[in-house]
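User: For my dataset I need records formatted as: sequence, then structure tokens, nothing else. Please produce one.
Assistant:
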Amino acid sequence: MTTRIALVGATGRMGGLIARLIAESDDFELTVGLSSADPLDKIVGVDIVVDVTTPQASPSVVEYAIAHGHNVLVGTSGWSADRVAGLEAKISGNLDVGVLIVPNFSLGSVLSTIFAGIAGRFYDSVEIVESHHAAKVDSPSGTAVRTAEHIAAQREGHEPLTPPHAEQTARGQVVGGVPIHSLRMRGVVAQQDIVFGGHGEQLVLRHETLSPTAYEAGILRALRALGDIRGVVVGLDKLIDLRSNDGLR
């Protein structure tokens, strides 16, 4: 059985990659391809919706999809913990739809965030430096926000992180007590450094995306899992067994 997909944001970088993967697959069909500015009422005759638009457009796409009974995969930045909580409240009790929000489709990025949550319990000084290509319009990245929120959540029972001089704008945007510094420049695909400072030492977790091919396995895993999702699920890590070496297949 072929799953019919509406891809919103099809004209963007990630949209183009997803469209190619759909075309190359045997189990998916791109039925509707829209830009971020196209009317959403063109979404008809599909099984699921994929949103890779902009932080401003994404909530409308998600609301339209769930209002019409479609599960939706969100690969757009801007879905902070507060925005996710609002979405959860909207579809609470609705067992017919599901939303899968994936801040990053790369396995390495997912593992980096998980490792950061572990390390964050042992260090009280944490900062993130994330770099993306010059065309990325939002900052900080959704991956960096997700990482900072995950670190803060894993520190439950510990003292909150209190970065020095956080009121200074040059110190970055603080999320969950973690300053995030964003670089947007040529020659970069994506890179994130999570820096932990301790007494007499530093620990740096780095993930670097060298090519968009790093996202392919995660995109396919998310698409194939989407039909069974109910409620709001955040993170590719929810779709893989982190207790084994199964990985992404």
